[in-house]
Design brief:
Layout (H helix, E strand, L loop, with lengths): L8 E3 L5 E3 L2 H8 L6 H20 L5 H19 L3 H7 L3 H8 L6
Antiparallel strand pairs: 1-2
């Protein structure tokens, strides 16, 4: 609920905002079995699922591949990664499989 663009920040004793160092974020998240990468993975997977579902079931395998490539490209731009890195490191492959099989719906 704090203002600003930083996801992890804290309010100082003086009332200002201070970005949290990565090691503090990792230390806080560790007991929950999470890392900062968990948030990027969730975000990329959610965006991919939403965008593919909006396209509806593919009519063919060729259309599925084309739609997946387009969505992965748009998600990778939003994350600031290449499509290859985004697909291999951040998008849950089960989402792509479900789309190809026509099992991903809005």
């Amino acid at each position: 609920s704090l203002p600003g663009d930083r996801l992890f920040q804290m309010r100082t004793k003086a009332g200002g905002l201070k970005p949290m160092a990565e090691e503090h974020v990792r230390e806080y998240l560790a007991p929950f079995g999470l890392t900062p990468k968990s948030f990027r993975t969730y975000h990329a997977s959610r965006l991919t699922a939403e965008r593919l579902a909006k396209l509806g079931p593919p009519a063919s395998e060729k259309e599925a591949k084309k739609n997946i490539a387009s969505v992965v490209q748009s998600v990778s731009q939003e994350l600031g990664n290449t499509p290859a890195v985004c697909r291999s490191s951040y998008i849950n492959p089960a989402i792509l499989d479900a789309y190809v099989k026509g099992e991903l719906h809005v």
